[in-house]
Specification:
By secondary structure, the chain is mainly alpha-helical. Helix content is 85%, strand content 0%. The two termini are 29 Å apart. The mean pLDDT is 87.
């Protein structure tokens, strides 16, 4: 359903729009969590370590898909808010063509470079073969990841957050059962986990793209051009900083993973379990921030900046409603949550996962407000300020991980870099929001 976010009470509109986005991203995370759960439960600790180790590299590809999603979503939302229907259709076609070309290049590079990346991050020999196998299958399905992300960005720009939620709910639940089938009945090991994700994501992608074109036919417009270099430039201006943000986060995570890999497979497995739980909630916050970006873009396109301020307050309430109970859960129930990922968890693997959650999760109360402020900055096109806040967090986390891991704190020093980076970067993003740089874009 296409929805105009420029009418109605801002807080209510934002909540109604963002909650399906939250549901969608939670189901999206089920893909990765299901892979780790099935690998750890039905294959073994080394399989869990291999999937977790590969995950940090897959985030590089996800960064590009996410950047294309955000770039197209913000531009199309502004065009939609301004009622420029022909340009909306042209922007959609332009995004799909450019993203498919970019994806083909990334697939080629991925097949060529992933073995080298696995070596760079000091992947232990006992999990190298499974890590490489998982990545090769994942890269083979990259086109589905890309086009699905583009489709969800378009849905969001048009005010429709429900349709992608339905697709993902069905696909993610199916992925769990196909994971188990391939691993337990067909004895495919790590390959079964990867192929299950490949197949289920392909179904989601095809359905989502088909519905996008059906929705576009509902817009009142004349025959729209298939491609526009000007609109591609506007999309790229938003997409590149978002890609750089996510890519540098991924590179930072790979550098941190290289430190963790030096501690051996049990620590890798414990971290793999904990980081899945962490990423599930952080990605949920990010989904709500993306909703804030679409809300901001549509309302600025319609020249309604006061609605953006009200939306910011509503978004802050929304993320706190999620952050407080999850932080409490992760602190109080960290051990049973980590055990979900392993049948016979070694003491070191269990201790690693528990320590990570107890150190990092209380600071969800800090980072969530940064992400909402970033959503406003990105939705307005204030990309320079957005990037400053992002790189402040990333650089601090990577540098501190190297420094603190070399102290008697050991691996716990790595986990402490998250709260420090988040706290300082949140201050930076809030300063930019309060100064109103987003109003001048």
């Amino acid at each position: 359903m296409i929805k105009d976010l420029t009418v109605g009470k801002p807080e209510r509109v934002l909540w109604k729009f963002s909650l399906p986005l939250l549901g969608s991203i939670l189901f999206q995370q089920l893909y990765n969590i299901a892979d780790s759960l099935v690998a750890g439960k039905f294959v073994g600790e080394n399989a869990l370590a291999a999937v977790g180790n590969s995950y940090e590299i897959t985030l590089i590809f996800i960064a590009f898909a996410f950047g294309c999603n955000i770039g197209s979503s913000v531009v199309i939302a502004k065009l939609f808010g301004a009622k420029r229907w022909n340009d909306v259709k042209t922007a959609v076609n332009t995004t799909l063509i450019a993203s498919a070309a970019l994806c083909a290049l990334l697939m080629l590079l991925g097949f060529l470079l992933c073995p080298a990346l696995l070596r760079v991050i000091n992947t232990p020999d006992e999990i190298f073969a499974d890590s490489r196998l998982y990545l090769n299958i994942y890269i083979g399905g990259l086109i589905f990841l890309f086009l699905y992300n583009i489709a969800t960005g378009i849905f969001s720009a048009l005010g429709d957050s429900t349709t992608p939620f339905v697709f993902l709910a069905i696909s993610s639940v199916s992925n769990i059962f196909v994971d188990i089938l391939f691993v337990t009945a067909f004895h495919m090991g790590v390959a079964g986990v990867a192929w299950a994700t490949f197949l289920c994501q392909a179904v989601s992608c095809v359905l989502a793209v088909a519905v996008v074109f059906r929705r576009l036919r509902q817009l009142p417009s004349e025959r729209a051009p298939l491609f526009s270099g000007k609109l591609l430039g506007e999309i790229t201006r938003i997409a590149i900083p978002s890609i750089l943000q996510q890519s540098f986060i991924s590179v930072g995570n790979i550098l941190i993973q290289s430190i963790i890999n030096g501690y051996g497979a049990p620590v890798i497995a414990g971290y793999a379990a904990a980081i899945k739980l962490n990423n599930m909630i952080i990605t949920s916050f990010t989904a709500l921030a993306n909703g804030m970006s679409n809300f901001t873009a549509q309302n600025l396109g319609a020249k309604l900046p006061d609605r953006v301020r009200e939306g910011f307050r509503g978004g802050a309430k929304m993320v706190y409603a999620l952050a407080i109970p999850v932080a409490a859960l992760y602190v109080l129930a960290s051990e049973p949550l980590i055990r979900l990922f392993m049948t016979d968890a070694s003491a070191l693997a269990l201790q690693t996962g528990v320590s990570f959650l107890r150190i990092v999760s209380p600071f969800y109360l800090v980072v969530n407000i940064k992400l909402i402020a970033d959503g406003v900055l990105r939705g307005s096109g204030a990309m320079r300020h957005f990037m400053i806040g992002t790189f402040t967090d990333l650089i601090l986390r990577v540098v501190l991980a190297f420094i603190l891991s070399a102290t008697p704190l050991g691996a716990n020093g790595i986990w402490m870099s998250w709260p420090i980076g988040w706290s300082i970067a949140t201050t930076v993003s809030l300063v930019f929001y309060k100064k109103g740089v987003w109003k001048r874009m």
